[in-house]
What does this fold into?
Amino acid sequence: MIDMTKVLLKPEFKNLTHVASGKVREIYSSGENLLFVSSDRLSAFDVIMNQGIPYKGAVLNSISAFWFDYTRDLVPNHFLSMNVEDYPVEFREYRSELEGRSMLVKKGKIVPIECIVRGYLSGTGWNDYRNTGSISGVKLRQGLLESEKLDEPIFTPSTKKRR
It folds into this structure.
């Protein structure tokens, strides 16, 4: 049975070097590598909520690891391991918090882009639609209402905001 009360919002790893925070991830340094820790934080429209979703970080981490592994022969990536035994020794004391929700990666240059799959007309997409009738250049039918379900999902670019 999953303990639905166990939520990790902000890990406290006092002996580790914290590098950065994202909407849902915390990043720690270890020499030539980084440790990404996926929290259970929930964000919507660039707002981080005070509540979390139990094990969201573990699910997000597993999905990311799957795709990094699946595509590594097509596109080189930064993924090294999700196995805490492979991590540098300083991380192992936090094993219970890291298992399933973290990954060791190579340091690299950040490319500040992201994408959004939109199924509903909300947020910045709504603003764009009101002004142009489109979202990121994707023309939509006239007369849509805020938060209305789109006829079909659309894929749009976005930019990562530095935190």
Observations:
- The chain has a mean pLDDT of 89.
